[in-house]
Amino acid sequence: MSSAFHFESLVWDWPIAIYLFLIGVSAGMATIAVFLKRRVLADGASRDGIIKATAIIAPLTVIVGLVILIFHLTRPWTFWYLMIFYSPTSVMSMGVMLFQVYMLVLIVWLAVLFRQEIANFLEQRFKGLRWINGIISALARFERVLEPLMIFLAVALGAYTGFLLSALKTYPMLNNPVLPVLFLFSGISSGAAAAVLFGITWFKQPVDSPSVHFVHQIEKPVVLFELFLLLALFVGLFFGGGQREAAAVAAIGGGFWSNVFWFGVIGLGILLPLIMSMVCSKRVQHSKSYIIAVACMGLSGILLLRFFILYAGQMTVA
Fold it and tell me: What sections of the protein cross the membrane (predicted)?
């Protein structure tokens, strides 16, 4: 192996890790936003800072992720083929189809959610486009169907990022059934961190509001389950013997990517926020700077997890 970022068995490199991270953030934010709207906010959802942050970040991260993927391909000008001609046996092709349906439903759901704001905007700035209000009103009749569909597609997209790596059959650590579940829950964790971070900084959402409290209630059990999934992943590899055991030892038994895992993913992303929540007073935990710091730690840990899984997973071949 020549270096941590360049070695003979490496096929997918850092742009794919960022792509996987961005898709996970979008899927996580969309999932949380739908539950937040249904269980806490109801008709006042469009005025909430976390929902507003989701309306911007969730579509934007998917667009940026796809742009990264397109330009990372050796022939980006042929990418449109994948958006028209689907292959049921290709994970990449099925993922592109999922992206398209997810984006369509996400845009429709957000348009229905912000229909009053859109109507006011068109009335003030673009009166010639007021016919759009009629389309949104017609779509609003299906709001109760849109929300569970949005959750299903967001969960499918979050798990898809794991299935994409699992399809690399020659790498024992990546070709693992735990990976889609791990990527789904870590995506929800990153979505929660991004929702709180951008909600309170961009849209001045009060830190003691019901919506921030709701997201915090989700965060802790999700992070603990994520920790359990990492344990299950490596215990399964160790007891798998042969190249599976070798892949686990190579990944977390020492070296650059082992340090990224223990200090970045486990230490910074999981244990430090959990310890801070146990030792800091309630007054400190409800401060804006504390919440921003914990959200940044969570997002950094998930980004490092994507890099770690991608690179360490390709170090050992079956």
Answer: 16-37, 49-71, 91-114, 149-168, 180-203, 223-240, 260-279, 291-312
CATH code at 189? Answer: 1.20.1630.10
Q: Is the dihedral of CA 312, 313, 317, 318 positive or negative?
A: positive
Rounded Cα–Cα distance for residues 28 and 189 (Å): 7
Rg (C-alpha) for the chain, rounded Å, is: 21
Exposed, middle or buried: residue 89 (CB in 10 Å: 0-12, 13-18, 19+)? exposed
Q: Residue 6 falls within a domain, yes or no?
A: no
253's CB contacts (< 8 A; 6+ apart) are none
- Residue 83, in any domain of the structure: yes
User: What stretches of the chain adopt beta strand conformation (E)?
Assistant: none
- Indicate the number of domains in the chain: 1
pLDDT attached to residue 88: 77
What's the CA dihedral at 209, 211, 213, 219 to 10 degrees? -150
Rounded-to-5 percentages of helix, strand, coil across the chain: 80, 0, 20
Residue 177 has pLDDT above 80, yes or no: yes
Query: How is residue 276 written in tokens?
Result: 């801070």
CA distance 311 to 5: 7
The CA angle 172-174-180, to the nearest 5 degrees, is: 135
Instruction: Kindly report, residue by residue over 41-81, the tens digit of the pLDDT.
Output: 988 899 999 999 999 999 999 999 888 888 887 677 777 77
Nearest to 192 by CA among 24, 29, 51, 64: 29
